[in-house]
Amino acid sequence: MSNPVSYNAHGPVAVLRIQNPPVNALSQAVRQGLSEAMDRAEADADIKAVVIVGDGRAFIAGADITEFGKPPMEPNLPDLCSRIEASPLLVIASMHGVSLGGGLEVALSAHYRIAQPDARVGLPEVHLGLLPGAGGTQRLPRLTGAAKGIEIMTSGGQVKAAAALEMGIIDKIETGDPQEVGLAYATELVNSAAPRRAVSELAGPEAMDWDAAYSGAVSKARGQNSPGAIVRAVQAASELPFAQGLARERALFTELLQGDQSKGMIHAFFNERAVSNLPELKGVTPRALNAIGVIGGGTMGAGIATAALLAKMQVVLIETGEAQASAARGRIEGNLQGALKRGKISQEQYDALTQDALVVAIDYASLSDVDLVIEAVFENMDVKKEVFGKLDAVCKQGAILASNTSYLDVDEIAAATSRRSDVIGLHFFSPAHVMKLLEIVVADKTALDVVATSFALGKAFGKISVRAGVCDGFIGNRILAVYRTAADHMVLDGASPYQIDRALTDFGFAMGPFAVADLAGLDIGWMTRKRKAPDRHADERVPTYIDKLCEEGHFGQKTGEGYYLYEKGQRASVPNPKIPALIAAEQADLRITPRDFSDEEIVRRYMCAMVNEAAKVVEEGIARRPADVDMVLLFGYGFPRYRGGPLKWADLQGLDTVLADIERYAQEDAWFWKPATLLKTLVADGRNFDDLNRAAGK
Ligand code: T1G
Q1: What is the CB-side half-sphere exposure of residue 194 using CA atoms within 13 A?
Q2: Is the pLDDT of residue 490 over 80?
Q3: Is residue 698 predicted with pLDDT exceeding 60?
Q4: Taking every annotated instance into account, which residue ranges of this chain make up the domain 3-hydroxyacyl-CoA dehydrogenase NAD binding (predicted)?
Q5: Is the pLDDT of residue 462 over 60?
Q6: Residues 215-248: tens digit of each pLDDT
């Protein structure tokens, strides 16, 4: 392995250039290279200053996350930072692109920091379930003050150069080649006999009400540990001498690194990237994607059209009539107004998108030149087949025909066309221009370049795209149906929907299953139960108490009444007093004597049902890898990121304990709790889901 840190003396200034593509992560070789280069500079009497600069697109993106979980390798980053800071030479960091995590910590251990105007700095360790572990919690607040330092570290956000200059994180902004800019600054400092400025020698940050800050961070963190730990580390910076504060930081960092939450979040970090890297697509060229057709301008269609417009594509949206077309345009403009308000687009971009890029029509002939069409009409197979037949007739050769169906058989839809290899499923989640998840449903005959084009579309839309096979509900909705049923079974057996919702939000879900049902619309579950009724197995327990509410026309938030009552426009969660009686009536019909459930049992059953069905989804090849299921649940179903996803959670619990519980539950209900074969095989072999992820490769 060649040394990733080059050393070049320019008069009295030594340039240390890090070359570790793609983002100059601080691997062991980089750390060692920096340490040796500092030794070399200090051994040369002619050298008065050192410039540290990154090659390529970034200064340094942080510690090398691939090293986490492996035995630590010297030199460790905190010691390297202290070593750099202690140098008798002037040390200058010349920053460009991103300087994140350990990268900013290296820069903070320098004596001066200069940056390009478009450079960004940050300490995003909180997104990995960690805190800055190389002095960041001690040095940053010495420059920014405690409150600002806590805000930067608990948000994990990136700070633009101008703001960083304002806060004192950097000393100067200069446009130019980062190495030249760094050299010029170093020369200026040497010539002016500028003093060494060790940040660690600055006074600690001001005191504050640390317990209030701590509980504030904890309450916002929804169960994640690192924000609270960050506050305690900054408190140490304020109350202890630097060395002791550093030791406190190290202890807090080590505790987080050894905990499950950082394992879950690092799993999420790597797999949200890996999930779209399908080996079978290597070398496959996607088709052109300049103009997109959308069929249907309801919430989903308008959201998809918005996502395409924001991805700088031409959009032709088809509706059934002038009034519907006008309403669809209104929805899209409303979505874009939101993007305008959030600063994602400028006014002139808004005008260009709505006046030039978007065409809303009622004649399918307008689609004759689009590269790909996404159908987002009513979830009815006959309607979809009719639409695809018309698309097949008007779209150009090579145009891709995609359905946004959330559960219907894409093979059957494809069969309604003469171009089955050009048909695919693109399952967006509402609102389609906001939700990150896109399930790419690959049908039997779908061509590989159509799959590649769909992943290219997902990337252009900024989505986390996951490959799914064809089955009822694909990956996410199929698993949702099962863990939702587990919750319904617990209601019939005695747990209240409100206790279940609370137990699961305490576990880390954004919302519990009954609040989600109210949000999505109780009519959806009602229609699904009616649709599946003909195929229902005799042993299947299907609660029907909520259907009584649907028969009265109460569908949740959209009608103001569901499991909860919603004052006009409120999202208040006031339990609906009708529900307990409906449950009691069904329990009486089924001669069930309700029993108590602990929150722990509720979470355990809910998670075991999710893991069991997820294992079946992997076993059947509907999902390519266990990590793909994890990404679906994280990005489409509000699963807590710091748990990494249901199958990562199961690995961390121990698959043998999960299987043991499922087998115990199966004694009550053998049909619902039939253990997944894959789960039994993994336990028998002493393997886990991550072993399957590694075997499937990137
Ligand atoms: N370590 C290892 N690999 C990394 C990496 C890192 N820190 N950052 C990115 N990569 C890989 C990534 O997996 C992908 O690989 C490729 O680089 C391009 O990334 C002690 C403990 C820097 C803003 O959390 O936020 O320092 O998929 O696709 O969209 O206190 O990557 O190509 O094989 O994301 O242009 C703190 C994490 C670490 C920054 C670039 N730092 N990275 O985004 O490209 S912990 C971070 C990012 C730490 C110290 C603590 C982004 C990016 P592949 P990409 P991008």
Answers
A1: 18
A2: yes
A3: no
A4: 292-468
A5: yes
A6: 999 999 988 999 999 999 999 999 999 999 999 9
Phi, psi of 372 (to 5 degrees): -155, 140
Half-sphere exposure (CA, 13 Å, Cβ side) for 215? 3
Q: Residue type for 263, please? A: K
Superfamily classification of domain 289-468: NAD(P)-binding Rossmann-like Domain (3.40.50.720)
**Probe target for ligand 1 pocket from 18, 23, 104, with the most ligand atoms within 8 Å of CB:** 23
| Pairwise CA distance, residues 129 & 122, whole Å | 15
Q: Which amino acid is at 610?
A: M
Q: Which residue has the tokens 């309450």?
A: 219
Tokens matching residue 191: 């010539």
105 as an active site residue: the answer is yes
CATH number of 5-258: 3.90.226.10
- Per the document, the length of the chain is 698
Residue 125 annotated in active site: yes
Q: 3-state DSSP call for residue 427?
A: strand
The Cα–Cα gap between 191 and 48 comes to 10
CA angle 165, 170, 172 (to 5 degrees): 75
Q: How far is the CA of 266 from the centre of ligand 1 (A)?
A: 11
Instruction: Tell me the C-alpha distance between 98 and 57, whole Å.
Output: 8
pLDDT mean over 73-95: 97
Tokens representing residue 189 in the block: 């400092």
256 lines ligand 1 (CB under 6 A): no
**Is it the case that residue 616 has pLDDT exceeding 80?**
yes
Judged by average pLDDT, the poorest of 106-110, 126-130, 518-522, 561-565 is 518-522
124: cis peptide before it, omega within 30°? no
Q: Which of 115, 431, 178 is nearest to 299 (CA)?
A: 431
- Helix-helix angle 260-274:242-258, to 10 degrees: 70
Q: Given CATH 1.10.1040.50, say whether it is the number of domain 476-697.
A: yes
Q: Tell me which of 85, 105, 272, 439 is the catalytic residue.
A: 105
In this structure, what token pair is assigned to residue 344?
A: 């994602």
Q: How far is CA 316 from CA 389, 460, 652, in A?
A: 18, 17, 47
**Ligand 1 in contact with 512 (CB < 6 A)?**
no
Domain ranges of the chain: 5-258, 289-468, 476-697
Alpha carbons within 13 A on the beta-carbon side of 358: 30
Angle subtended at Cα 424 by Cα 419 and Cα 429, rounded to the nearest 5 degrees:
150
Backbone angles phi, psi at 465, to 5 degrees: -95, 135
Cα 40 to Cα 9, 37, 48: the distances in Å are 10, 5, 12
